[in-house]
Amino acid sequence: MRSKIIIANWKLNGNWSFNEEFASALSKGLKEIDLKDRQIVICPPNVYLQQLNGLLLEKSIFLGGQDLSDELSGAYTGEISGAMLKDFGCRYVLVGHSERRARHFETTDMVVRKAVNAISAGITPVICIGETLEQRQKGLMKDVLSDQIQALVVGMTDQIDSIVLAYEPLWAIGTGETATVEEAQEVHTWLRSEFEKVNPAIAEKLPIIYGGSVKAGNAAELLQVADIDGLLVGGASLVPHEFLSICLAGL
Ligand code: PEP
Q1: Ligand 1 mutation target, pool 67, 232, 242, 243, most atoms within 8 A of CB
Q2: What is the pLDDT of residue 147?
Q3: Fewer CB in a 10 Å sphere around the end CB: N or C, the chain?
């Protein structure tokens, strides 16, 4: 049985006092709750990792980075490595988020290198894949996702069992538009079946989480789908009581 993972992606948000209030609300809200193996992950901007590492003391709450370099060290101004994230207590790191693919021109090759670097640093990469609205409307969704998966399978070989896959349809990110439970279920089941063709044992264990306008109001129904192993939450993760409800949804 796969456990559920709820990930907060704060993006370019947060500040010293917000972080303190958020951590205190979350820690209080989760205290003495049986999360049934559910893991909660907060991905703040890197500069706040150390602050949050000292504040998020509940045992089910972990830290994650929002990105890492595809290089290990050297003359790469502004970048941060997996080893550095590990030093700051990260257990997870987002890789290939659509905003990075679009704004920073991250290629699939870079995404694979980043994921491999994360694993060698002892961090689990949460690899984001997804299709645009135009691709979906043109009936290209499966081709697009299949290409993204294929690159991972080829580039990561035996490390593919150390990832979390995040299905984030681009048309649902930050738009208020969520895939229906049926739509999400269909894609997640199909994604797992694609991994089954490669290795059934890995497919069975692979956590596949959903992201795209998740809120307190739809978290429980999404989490009850057998092939949805968690949620990646952007906007709603910045509202402490809303994110807390998502963390507790369906328990
Ligand atoms: C995201 O950016 O990963 C995301 C899912 O954002 P939102 O929840 O705001 O759609």
Answers
A1: 232
A2: 94
A3: N
Mean pLDDT by 10 residues, the chain (251 residues): 94 97 94 91 97 88 97 97 97 97 94 97 98 93 95 91 96 86 94 94 95 95 95 98 97 91
Ligand 1 atom with the shortest distance to the CA of 166: 3
Any idea which residue has 């930050």 for tokens? 174
- What token pair was written down for 208? 């596949």
In angstroms, what is the span from residue 111 Cα to ligand 1's centroid? Answer: 19
Output the pLDDT for position 157: 84
Indicate the burial class of 132 (C-beta count within 10 angstroms; 0-12, 13-18, 19 or more). Answer: middle
Q: Who's near 105: CB < 8 A, 6+ residues apart?
A: none
Phi-psi region of 166 (alpha: psi -120 to 50; beta: other; left: phi over 0): beta
Known catalytic residues are 97, 168
What is the per-residue burial (b if ≥16 Cβ within 10 Å, else e) of 66-98? bbbbbeeeeeeeeebbbbbbbebebebbbbbbb
